[in-house]
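Q: I'm building a small set of examples for a reading group on sequence design. Run inverse folding on the following structure and report the sequence directly after it, with nothing in between.
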């Protein structure tokens, strides 16, 4: 039985891998843990895969997966999760900014305190304040508001998971930022954080730019929508459609009724078709009907899904 699995997704980090592997090895050996390290090479164009092969030849606890091209961090984590055998599964970045010295305490929090996920919190970031710190704080504040998970650093690469979590959560697209939210939606609600030491990048440069915050926000909205309305789309589209249809219908009836009343009283009136509000009312009615029909289509798709009755069962007796 393996105690700890450590998954390290990487892209062009050949220089840092030997030091990271040695650092992890020292921490694991000092506690006598049975462990495995799974390096997932996400289509590197440098010598990263050759370095991994050399490290694996020296240490049987080290394994590697190599993608033919760059698929992204989510794909790397998904493949790593599939192969992980440890009771507690860790993820960390390969750039030496995440410290393996944090592993013992995070392991204890999972195994002894019973947390499903322990997320690292880089309280004192060693990144550029303008391009990383401030956008990260805004991004995390938005994530806390939408997900309801009170983590200060949702996107921290250093995390510890109970094995059951990574086996039941599917990571895809660029959803690696929101694994805690995916886990919460799957029923794993014991999520906490631990302040961790964050180090300056020693080799190379960051592979992520400012666009990750925009993409991250859009991914967050997608997850919120799927988690809230994924299996009941009519609750959103049907309600919105009925509301728009009623508002547009009431506006149209009011305009027509006002015209007829004025006409009957001999009062000067504007033709219905001369009033812009009438066309807005028609648009609202049409959009309301379309939204309602979209809800029906969504329900048909949801009921046809092969996963419509997939439920995470905790235990049976």
């Amino acid at each position: 039985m393996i105690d700890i699995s450590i998954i390290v997704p990487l892209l062009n980090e050949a220089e840092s891998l030997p030091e990271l592997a040695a650092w992890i090895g020292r921490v694991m050996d000092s506690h006598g843990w049975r462990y495995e390290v799974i390096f997932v090479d996400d289509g590197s164009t440098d010598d990263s895969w050759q370095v991994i092969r050399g490290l694996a030849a020296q240490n049987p606890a080290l394994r590697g997966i190599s993608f033919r091209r760059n698929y992204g961090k989510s794909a790397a984590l998904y493949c790593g999760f599939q192969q992980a055998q440890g009771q507690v599964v860790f993820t960390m970045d390969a750039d030496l900014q995440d410290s393996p010295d944090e592993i013992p305490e995070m392991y204890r929090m999972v195994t002894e305190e019973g947390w499903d996920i322990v997320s690292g919190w880089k309280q004192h970031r060693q990144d550029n304040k303008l391009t990383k710190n401030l956008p990260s704080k805004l991004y995390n504040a938005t994530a806390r508001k939408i997900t309801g998970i009170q983590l200060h650093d949702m996107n921290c690469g250093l995390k510890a998971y109970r094995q059951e979590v990574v086996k039941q959560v599917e990571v895809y697209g660029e959803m690696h930022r929101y694994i805690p939210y995916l886990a919460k939606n799957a029923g794993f609600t014991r999520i906490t954080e631990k302040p961790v030491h964050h180090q300056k990048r020693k080799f190379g440069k960051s592979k992520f730019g400012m666009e990750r915050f925009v993409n991250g926000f859009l991914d967050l909205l997608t997850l919120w929508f799927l988690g809230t309305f994924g299996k009941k789309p009519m609750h959103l589209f049907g309600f919105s459609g009925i509301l728009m249809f009623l508002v547009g219908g009431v506006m149209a009836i009011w305009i027509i009724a006002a015209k007829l009343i004025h006409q009957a009283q001999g009062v000067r009136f504007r033709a219905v078709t001369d009033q812009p509000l009438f066309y807005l009312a028609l648009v609202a009615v049409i959009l309301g009907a379309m939204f309602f029909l979209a809800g029906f289509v969504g329900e048909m798709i949801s009921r046809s899904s092969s996963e419509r009755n997939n439920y995470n069962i905790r235990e049976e007796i």
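The chain has ten helices and seven strands.
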